[in-house]
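Dear colleagues,

As part of the handover before I leave the project, I'm documenting each prediction I ran so the next person doesn't have to rerun anything. This entry is a single chain, and its sequence is reproduced below.
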Amino acid sequence: MNNNFLEIDEMKSVLYSYQLEEISEGDSEIIQDGIDAAIEEVKSYFFASNNRREVLNLTAQQYANYKIYDVEAIFSTTGQARNQFILRLCKRIAAYNICELANVDVRYDQVKESYAGVIKTLERIAGFTDGGQLVISALPSLQPEPPDGNEEATAPFRMGSRPKFTHDF
């Protein structure tokens, strides 16, 4: 896949080069597979966040203000244009994916804890937690589509009364 969002040589900030070499046994395709899987995993949380807007039963105003991420724009950037926070999340998940293969002088528990922390962060981005959704304002977003114009369809409930009942004899 290799979309250039995260390169193999950038993994040195989360794993030592000799560790990567020993785990992959010199096969860079193994490392690239771990990176590609990590990017797809992180993307899936952003897509889930976008899709969640449709099932939240929001009012028209809430619907319009809901952050929709432009996932393709986020992950098609390269170099310094990348969001460093998202890049770091991808690196940590890639490290976990790579370390699953072998435990060569790697603090597996530390890598596993880091992975669990990243997953909690991604769950907040997707809005899966009770603590509120994490919104990253620096990331590009899509313009939300306006509701179909039917305010009642997007309102969570409707209040009113029935017409007055009269006895017609």
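The helical segments are 17-24, 28-52, 60-65, 71-75, 84-99, 108-126, 151-154. Residues 8-145 form one domain.

All the best with the project,
I.
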